Fold this protein.
Amino acid sequence: MRKVIIAITLFITSFGMAPGQGLFSPGSPKDDGKFAASTKQVNQFFRRFNAEESQDGMKRYYSGDALFRDRELRGKFISILFDNETSGISGELKTEFMRDVLSETQPQFLNFHEGEWFAEVVSVFQYKGRSENVTLFLKIQPEGLGYEWVIDKVVFQPFKDIFNKPIGTDKSFIHPLSHELGFMNLRKAFENSNSPESYTAKEYVPDYLTLFLYELKKGSIKFETISDVKFHFFQINNWYFELDQFNRPGFNTGWLIGDLVKLKPGDKETILEFIYDQK
Amino acid sequence: MKKYIPLFLLLFFASATITLAQTDNISPARKQAIDSLALEKVKDLSKYISIIGSKETQFSEANRVMDRAEELFAPDAEMGVSSLSRKEIAYYKVRNYFERLMALNYDKVNITWYDIHYISDLERQPDGRYVGVITVYQRFEGTSIESGLNYRDTTKKDITIYVEKKQTQIAGRTIEFWDVMLGDIRVTETAA
């Protein structure tokens, strides 16, 4: 019994004597401030945007804390949340955005759970023997006792190539008295046309997500990997911004605003149509 | 396990004082206690990774440490690794990742961890468990004497933590406590 106890004690203490070094060990490399400055998580982007944490990120501020959502602190944070190296967002636009967001009377904050933001995930799938990019759009929704990310839309070029509804004189049609013939001409319509979508209503839009799920379930499309992730935000009134991850040397890194657009009426729909790329 | 007992107790008392007011929400005080426990587990993982990677570690000891390290993780946890030259994620089972780390062909390996970390908020999942992410940074240095090659990289590790309220029986009484398990880890080579 004593031998067993000694063996166990030696086993446990051996970890302490091992040559490796753990987190916060004496002699850990010191961050020169770059990692501290980096917006390391999307969560930190939210917290910085709203001024819900200390400048070093070590303390979470909650409602009731003196600096919770402090306007001055927010100003400092938001000014470092732009990509200043590649995106070319003008100084005037940033100032106008910050003026709206930091308004003394109606400040605007980001909210993780309240929609109007979504993820764009570029993934790679194996399809017909080739690696193909599939863009998935995911959004947060309440479910059960909490929340989950769900796939809202998908863009897959091979699917888009299949659906190409002709227009004008190129478009086949089912003539308007076909009903009198009991629609017997559907045979010709389906057999002689490689664009059966010609016979669909004007408002018809292919549902790529359903097709994608069908192919997945059939096993003809298989997940390989993820190659890129970004986020689109419409939560701030009259503004759109894109959140991208910048992995580069320096202090302006991590999750940063890579694109910023002031929205006029109708712009939101146009941008969404462009992002979702469903047609 | 023994070393986590004070933290479990802290979590238990933090829970007990607040349970009456909030049955399932995590208060700031409880969140802080959970963060400490989660960080303790991440610290252990970091120590285990350093030991597994070190060339001074005997094969048998490395295997024992891998067993201990695996115990920190929820079942099916994976490592998703990308580098500066390859943005696509390569997936490894946790054990497989450790084994590859152990088998790296260097004469000397030194794995150290930067003095910085970041802990996210906890979000509740549909099944009632909470999930969070802890970010740490690791420096890897590998030296090959024969080829004279030195390899060095810095990786960001985003570590999933699952937080769950559990029950145990102590002296016939049912005690509730919050437990933390590690989940998937995203490993990104940084340009820093």
